[in-house]
From TrEMBL:
One of its GO terms (cellular component) is extracellular region. GO terms for biological process: cell wall organization; peptidoglycan-protein cross-linking; regulation of cell shape. CDD domains: YkuD_like. The lineage of its organism: Bacteria, Pseudomonadati, Verrucomicrobiota, Verrucomicrobiia, Verrucomicrobiales. This is Putative peptidoglycan binding protein.
Length: 364
């Protein structure tokens, strides 16, 4: 039998070890200058991202969506809700926060020339990444500034196959596994699940009963093109969709005969996934601007990062209910031409007589 003192020491070591694992995050004050990451925040973001409580782009910096993801995760687990610097989550599952990735020759097939105008984009067969750093940023859910900082003094503009780069240790977004599928298969057991979207908080949640399965940041519409509140239903989920670019739809919500059909690709305006709702023209989708999620406005839809929308698609199915809460679109002002008063209307002026033979027939 073990000596009681040995047992007490063993328990003490266990308690100390647990305390070390769940100690509060260390956030320096003042923060280091951007884009230098804070290690404890970087680990927390990787942890939350891995558990599908998206902090937005991983950058190792404190921010709105890291805080919201943390608080939603704590609430789901029944833990005390805290600020970033006071959390006691066990982040040991993260392992090393920074790993390495070797750029492969086959990665280059997803990188190429990307025109800026829809008219030119419509003539291509695929809308690729415009650089390897954009490819890496999306693959590892992070900001390009973080990759540049981690790999200084390596020049990101000259990356090539064989180069080894440091990246965050997240579940990589694998663009090479996505093929064009017009409608993903239905999963009947997912039908009771509900997507709840709060456009004020810019958050999307997937619920199974009262349990929150995933929480992701979104960019909703606003103003005249605000995302319409209400209870909707998923009509279908398309992987690697094309996009009908119509300026009239984007600005006024009305279809016109002047449009461009844009091909699939990570830089398609709706990204790599379209989750259509039974509200014409409205859906949840990916984006070609993953760095701006939650920080700008859409044209009525709800967009989220490509690395998030592909994981969201694995939790949902056609026919699911989507509840959107938030402000309704504001009416566009009706511009009515102001009628001029009688005394404001100038009298008609007599035209000058034309030269030539018609002058003989001019009447005064």
């Amino acid at each position: 039998m073990k000596h009681p003192l040995f047992i007490s020491v063993t328990r003490l070591v266990s308690v100390l070890a647990l305390a070390c694992v769940s100690a509060s995050a260390v956030i320096p004050d003042p923060l280091p200058p951007a884009p230098e990451p804070v290690e404890d925040i970087l680990r927390l973001q990787i942890f939350l991202d891995t558990h599908l409580f998206g902090p937005g782009k991983v950058d190792g910096r404190p921010g709105e969506f890291t805080t919201k993801a943390l608080k939603r995760y704590q609430t789901t687990l029944g833990l005390p809700v805290t600020e970033i610097g006071d959390h006691t989550l066990d982040l040991s599952s993260v392992g090393e926060s920074i790993i390495t990735y070797t750029i492969r020759p086959e990665d280059l097939q997803y990188v190429g020339h990307l025109p800026t105008q829809p008219s030119a984009q419509s003539k291509k067969k695929y809308l690729p990444y415009d650089s390897l750093i954009e490819f890496l940023s999306e693959r590892f859910h992070c900001s390009p500034e973080l990759i540049e900082f981690l790999n200084h003094p390596m020049k990101m503009g000259t990356l090539k196959p064989g180069d080894v780069v440091k990246v965050p240790n997240v579940q990589p977004f694998l663009i090479e596994e996505l093929t064009q599928i017009a409608s993903l298969p239905e999963i009947p057991e997912y039908l009771p699940r509900i997507i709840k979207i709060d456009t004020r908080e810019k958050l999307l949640g997937v619920y199974e009963g009262e349990k929150l399965l995933a929480s992701l940041p979104i960019t909703p519409g606003s103003g005249h093109l605000a995302t319409p509140p209400g209870t909707w239903r998923i009509l279908g989920i398309a992987q690697m969709p094309t996009f009908r670019w119509d300026k009239s739809v984007l600005e006024y919500g009305v279809r016109s005969g002047s449009y461009y059909n844009l091909p699939m690709g990570p830089n398609n305006p709706v990204g790599v996934m379209w989750i259509g709702l039974n509200k014409p023209g409205i859906g949840i989708h990916g984006t070609n601007q993953g760095q701006t999620i939650g920080r700008s406005a859409s044209h009525g839809c709800m967009r989220t990062a490509n690395w998030d929308v592909v994981r969201l698609a694995k939790l949902i199915t056609k026919g699911m209910t989507v509840i959107i809460e938030g402000p309704a679109p504001t009416p566009r002002p009706v511009i009515v031409a102001k009628a001029k008063k009688a005394d404001e209307i100038p009298p008609p002026s007599n035209p000058e007589p034309k030269r030539g033979f018609k002058l003989l027939f001019w009447k005064k």
